[in-house]
Structure formats: structure tokens, C-alpha cells
């Protein structure tokens, strides 16, 4: 009798433990669906199920602000004709992969956005009326797009062109003579997160801020396609919604009231006192200004110090070139070498980790590079209402000031790129400021003036697209108080994936739903049976 009672108690305990385990599993799943407790772990080789911290913060802000985000997809049905060529099959596989990548990406938006994000996939073969109504409302005639909708505003993104960078190669008509095969299209970069998050940010801001570009100081060109022009930055700002206009203070004498910010790129002459007064007055009213300066080898007069503006705003500009030792792989025991023109290229080793402009870059590990820079220094005495922050951008620790002491053929001083040998290293080398922010007390409550100074070739066409584009756009978005658009836009993504057919997915599903619980129950039963035999 006692043995029977023990067996009944053992089996009852096993059933109770199984019920409790199932209840705990259900509770864990329910809790995991809550946005505040949800955590996505990505173990895929290409991190295809991971989104950046910037996007996660954006979704958090959306939810906290009470916005609703809807992401609708209308994919073009894909198929292959019977006489499909090798190139047709390759394009089919590529476009199918793009749709899969986009679907996986939108799952991450839904996972991190919680109740604030709604993802809807419209099937052209099943939801004909719904798709027709959607495309008619959007005046969209082509399929294969993602609709990004924030509250009542929306934007349409093409899967093939906005979310992906594809090199289609040459078509049959443009194939070179003697080329036997048509080149296959190549997915160079998948920009899904960049495009969708940028669209969300653009829908959160309204209006078109006006940027006035100052002229009349032998400044850099902003319209030509040369490498030293700033046309790429101007086009990028226009795509971000800015209006670009030119401003000559000799004619207007004041900064217009509709100026969101003003900019002066690489001036080659000094500024009259009247112009400095107009700019300071603009900053004292909550205005925003960008000043980009460079070092010019010759003539020396093309390196203005802007002393009149600096006296009013608490900064000084060095007249000499800032150089930095170049890493020498052959001598890793030394900090670097000099005597080469490459010392003119300054690696920015330190960015302000908390400033809105540079914080996304620090988090992404993306540090800019500048060339032909001059040192930005704090004035000995700051005027009232001025705060000088030299931490926005700083060079590496082995930078020195290259004084022009060697005479050229025309008697003009030139540099030799050699660090002085008669100065102790601790006195010669130091980290130099090449980017600073000056805050100006304003008469407008809650809106201080800002002056951002960046030294060296940092944002011209030569480096804007490849290195420093995000930094440049962040500066102007921040000055125009479009903080939602500050972030990191360019992320490299290599789409590698693990393909699972429907049968494999079904097997994994049954394994998780039935296999694991049944296996645990059978194991428990075996343990109980074994114990009952002892």
C-alpha cells in the first residue's frame, strides 16, 4: 500500500512539475513580447537581424512621444519564364533576396517598436482590392515598395533603388564587342535601415530651414563639381530639406531674419569689423553659424585669423599648419615618422562622446579625417556670455605646429614636414583642437547662439562622400534644431543568409512546440520509473 501511494505521489508530482513548467514557459513568452523586456539576440553571420542603436533610440522616442509608425510592403510577385537566361535567374535570386532582407528588417522594427509600430505585408495575389486602394491613394503605379507612414504623413521607398545599391552592369545593347556573357548585377550595399530610418526622421520634422552661405572673402566654391568644391554637401542638404541661398554682408549689412543658420567655407581673406558685428549680433539673437577654415601654403595672406570675430566670441585661429606623425609599420616601437607630406593628414582621434553632433559617430566607431588644418584655441579671456568647448574634434596625441621657416625660390616661407629636433617631445607633441563649439548667450529665451568651427579640408567633395558626410550633415541638422535627423546614415551591410525551405521551417516549429516539452516529460517519466524500481 505504501509503495502504491509513493508511486501515485511521484507521478502526481511529475504532472504538477510539468504543468508548472508549461505555465512558466507561457509566462516567459508573454513577458518577452513586452517592448520593455524584449531582447533580440542575433547569431547570424551577417548580423542581418540587428539594427543600430540609433534606430532603437528613434523607435523608443516614437513610442514615448505617442507617434504611430506603419510600415506597409507591396512586393512584386517574382517568377521565372521557361526560357529564362542565366542572368534572369540571377536577377530573380537577387530581388527575392532583397524582399527577404526587407521582411527580416521590418521584423526588427516591429520587435523594438512594440505597440507603436505596425507592419503590414500586402500580397498582390491575395489582397488585390486592398493593394489597389493603397496604390491609388499614393498615386503609385509600380509595386515592390515600402510605405513608411508616421501619423498622417507618409513616404514611399523603392525596394530596388532606395533600399539597395545595385550594379546592374551592361545590358545586351551596351555589351562590349567580344563579351560573350552579360554581366550579372551585383548587390553592392543593402541600405534598408538607413533609408527607412531616414524616412521616419524626415516625416517627424516639418518646414524647410534656410541656410545662407556667406560670400565675399575668397571662399571655396559651392556649385562646381571639382574636388575642392562644396557642391556635394549643398546637394545633400537640399535633399534633407534645406533651402540654400547666398549672402553678401557688404550689400545686406545684416543677416536675414529667416536664416536658420549661416556658413562660411574656407575664407581666404579677413572679415571687416562691420561684418563681424553683424554676425555677432545674429548669434546674440539665437543664430547659428558654421565656419570652416583651412591652411594655405602660399600666399600667407590667405590664412586669415578672423581676430575681430575671435575677440568677440572668445577664440583664436593659428596661422600655421598642424601636422601629425605618420604610423610607420616598420618601426612599431616609435610613435611615427615625419618628413613626408602625409603628416598634413590629421586623424581625428577624439570626438565629444556626449554632444548630439558627434555622439552617434563615437558609438559607431567612425572618426573623421581632416587635411591642412590650423589649430583652434580658446582666447585668453572669454567675453561675457561665451562658452568655448574645444572637445568636438581633436587630433591624435602626436601633432605639432609646423612653423614655416624654410624659404622657397620666391622668398615665400614653405614647410618641410619635419618636426623640430631641438624641442622636447612632451613640449612639442600634443593633441590639437580642430573642431570647436562656441555657445553664445542669447536674448531669445531657450535658444542660445552656436558657432561651430571646423579646421582643415573636412567637408569638400573630395572627402564628403567617403569619410565625413555624416559629421557635416549632423552639424547643420543640429544647428537648425532638427535633432531627429542627427545620426549615422551610411552603414555597410553584406547580405549573407541561411536559406531554410518551408519543410525545414515546419520541422523547427514542431521541434520547439512539441519536441522539447515532450522530450522533457519523457525524461521525467523515465527518472520517476527508475526511482520507483529502487
Textual characterization of the structure:
The protein is α/β, with parallel strands linked by helices. The chain folds into 3 domains: 2-34 and 508-533, no CATH class; 53-202, no CATH class; 206-481, Rossmann fold, CATH 3.40.50. The protein is 35% helix and 21% strand. The chain has 13 helices and 20 strands. The protein has helices spanning 2-32, 53-65, 86-113, 128-138, 192-204, 231-239, 249-252, 273-284, 307-313, 359-364, 425-428, 461-479, 502-533, and strands at 69-74, 117-122, 145-150, 153-158, 164-167, 186-190, 210-214, 243-247, 261-265, 288-293, 315-324, 345-351, 369-371, 373-378, 386-395, 399-402, 406-407, 413-414, 433-440, 449-455. The strands form 5 sheets. The protein has a 9-stranded mixed β-sheet with strand order 8-7-9-10-20-19-15-12-13, with helices on both faces. A 4-stranded mixed β-sheet has the order 2-1-3-4, with helices on both faces. Strands 14-11-16 form a 3-stranded antiparallel β-sheet. The longest helix has 32 residues, at 502-533. The chain is elongated and about 110 Å long. Mean pLDDT is 83; it is low at 171-176 and 491-499.
